[in-house]
Amino acid sequence: MTMPPVKYQRGDMVMGRWPGSSLYYEVKVLAFDSKSQLYTVIYKDGTELELKEQDIKSTAGFQPRSRSRSRSPGRRRSRSRSPARTTRRSSSRTAAAVAAAAITDSAVSSRRDTRLKDVEVMLSPVQQTKEAENNSNNRHEKKEEKQKEENNTANKVNETTEAEPEKNQGRYNLRRRKDDGDAKPAETRPEQLEEKEAKRVGALASTLSTPLDFGGKIGAYFWLLFLPAWVFFLVLQVNREDPSLTNFPPPLPPLEAFWDAQALGFVILWILFQALLYVTPMYSVLSLYLSLNTCLPPGFFAIVVSAITVAAAVHQGVDLTYIHSHFLQLATASLLISILLSVYLYIRSRYAAPEQLALGGNSGNVVYDFFKGHELNPRIKNFDLKFFCEMRPGLIGWCLINFAMALAEMKQHGLDAPSNSMILVNLFQLLYVVDGLWNEEAILTTMDLMHDGFGFMLAFGDLVWVPFTYTMQAYYLVSHPNPLSLPALAAIVILKLVGFYIFRKSNSEKNAFRRNPADPRLSHLKTIPTATGKSLLVSGWWGVVRHPNYLGDLLMALAWSLPCGFSHLLPWYYMIYFIILLVHRDSRDMSDCRRKYGSAWDEYCRTVRYRIIPRVY
Ligand SMILES: NC(=O)C1=CN([C@@H]2O[C@H](COP(=O)(O)OP(=O)(O)OC[C@H]3O[C@@H](n4cnc5c(N)ncnc54)[C@H](OP(=O)(O)O)[C@@H]3O)[C@@H](O)[C@H]2O)C=CC1
Ligand SMILES: CC(C)=CCC[C@@H](C)[C@H]1CC=C2C3=C(CC[C@@]21C)[C@@]1(C)CC[C@H](O)C(C)(C)[C@@H]1CC3
């Protein structure tokens, strides 16, 4: 069978249709994929998209309407989308840049507008409303200033003053926007995101194809089988007297050893208990009771109540070492739940409205889409499944398991107290989790919450991977004690604290900036404006290195493995996995940001040249 000739060739300058509209912009053809019948085209600021042949016209004979010629799509968009209104759209570069960047940005940012406003403000303490108003006023003044200096912003490093309207000062909200009160500054009111625009953007998200991650469709099959197998391997191997990798493979227990109905019951009970805490507004009652001015972060409340409940249960004679002795069965039960949840998520994503979808996870391949997840923030009424799974049962379960391992160590070795190494691992990881829960609204600026769909990868990651592999060090120490000298202990504590400092400071800086770029505490920072209206930090922590938060996290990971010593590789598994995960996330983020921010991202990369590890002179 002969293939029809390709109409446009590589290098051709043509007019590409703006997805979801009838406007055409000049693009250059980069490639043609005969399988998908899609042309890869590049816009003037370097953003790439895939277009169908019918969305491309040759420039010859193309009759641009005078209006559409003089106006960039970004400016058109700015009428309907509040973020654009406050941005420096009229800068000289935006006409070209927005033609490109706005496509991906509108899909991402507008959806984020719809979603993140969904997930903000519910827990606003009263005084935050005032703060928000002040900020709103602040923003209006700044906006006027901005309009005056409109034309000199292109690709220039500026002092931080830009206001980003999608931010506000409240705590996060997992309630639907229609329920929100009037407390929000006018600029951030949800009504401003016109329904039509949201639909258009959603439709775009459901049709746009993004490059496939994780080895594409074949990779998805691999990961689906490999990840659960790896969890079982670790669980079986670490419990052996000699867990060295040379002693591979671990003897496979009979199939029925993997299963215990009671273990399933406990896992379900734990998840339901966490769900109950998640929906209970007790934290505000507790705040009132403790005469606190602000609400306690609900995640923090959840871990405190969980700890009290567990302590009470232990006091009543509940033997937590059950967790150590039934680790395998508990892992199987959690895997089963994560699979059922992923099937549910996949099915509902097929019926979800386009504006609820994430970019990616719409490859059309059932296995890939099941793995990657397509719906961005699936909810049952106000219950946000992704947020809940990421921040509660697995994360708090991690601490519960560590604690159980400490008890198992005491029991196994007849100790009155856990070993130094066990205490360090427990305290370090507890600090990490408590910090995550205390700052849980910061998760709203992370990749998972913002960009990734909720599918098997995250459901399994949250419910199985985190509780059953992040606890490897504590599990290992139960049967492989590693006494620590005082200097070693001190050095490890210092390492942990340094890592934690970098991690917390850099995450808080970015989070504060994304929530309110006009925050006076950030006024010393330099930024690069982007065509999307959001800016990029180019000084402070994010000016030292790209992803300074990953650096802090890696130092902490090192401090978690060191107490286990160097006899075996297994307790170093987390460190090795984490390097791979973060390097991969960094490159995923690089290409996402490149797509989103176009040449502004390139400029950021030119200014901040190093990734994760800064150059030491
Ligand atoms: N323990 C664990 O298993 C894991 C822990 N983590 C930790 O979770 C935290 C969140 O990680 P993750 O979501 O991967 O990534 P980040 O929190 O670093 O988020 C990346 C996003 O930050 C924004 N950004 C990047 N550079 C800049 C800049 N210069 N100025 C302003 N904004 C910028 C971009 O989003 P935009 O511009 O759209 O706002 C980018 O997509 C990290 O601390 C990480 O270490 C992560 C994974 C696993
Ligand atoms: C191999 C596999 C299945 C990977 C899935 C990755 C997930 C396990 C991680 C993706 C991002 C995560 C984050 C945390 C836990 C691990 C996962 C879910 C996190 C909640 C840990 C606590 C931190 O303080 C954090 C809130 C910053 C962090 C957010 C990202």
What is the structure about, briefly put?
The protein has helices at 66-70, 73-80, 82-85, 94-118, 126-148, 195-207, 216-238, 261-279, 282-289, 298-315, 322-325, 327-351, 366-372, 385-391, 393-413, 420-438, 447-450, 456-469, 472-479, 486-515, 541-544, 548-561, 573-597, 599-607; strands at residues 13-17, 24-33, 38-42, 48-52, 56-58, 158-159, 379-380, 383-384, 526-529, 535-537.
List keywords for this structure.
3 domains; binds NADPH dihydro-nicotinamide-adenine-dinucleotide phosphate; binds ligand LWLCTGZJ; SH3 type barrels; 10 strands; 5-stranded antiparallel beta sheet; 3-stranded antiparallel beta sheet; DNA-binding; single chain; alpha+beta; 617 residues
Describe it for me?
This protein is α+β, with helices and mostly antiparallel strands. It folds into three domains: 13-67, SH3 type barrels (Roll), CATH 2.30.30.140; 71-146 and 155-180 and 484-617, no CATH class; 209-478, no CATH class. It has 24 helices and ten strands. It has helices at 66-70, 73-80, 82-85, 94-118, 126-148, 195-207, 216-238, 261-279, 282-289, 298-315, 322-325, 327-351, 366-372, 385-391, 393-413, 420-438, 447-450, 456-469, 472-479, 486-515, 541-544, 548-561, 573-597, 599-607, and strands at 13-17, 24-33, 38-42, 48-52, 56-58, 158-159, 379-380, 383-384, 526-529, 535-537. A five-stranded antiparallel sheet has the order 4-3-2-1-5, with no helix packed on it. Strands 6-9-10 form a three-stranded antiparallel sheet, covered by helices on one side. The chain has a two-stranded antiparallel sheet with strand order 7-8. A hairpin with a 6-residue loop joins strand 1 and strand 2. The longest helix is centred in the last third of the chain and has 30 residues, at 486-515. The chain is globular. The N and C termini lie far apart (61 Å). The model is unreliable at 64-198 (pLDDT under 50). The structure holds NADPH dihydro-nicotinamide-adenine-dinucleotide phosphate and ligand LWLCTGZJ. NADPH dihydro-nicotinamide-adenine-dinucleotide phosphate is lined by residues 445-448, 503, 507, 510, 513-514, 534, 536-537, 542, 547, 549-550, 553, 581, 585, 589, 592-593, 604. Its EC number is 1.3.1.70. Residues 55-96, 122-199 are annotated as: Disordered.
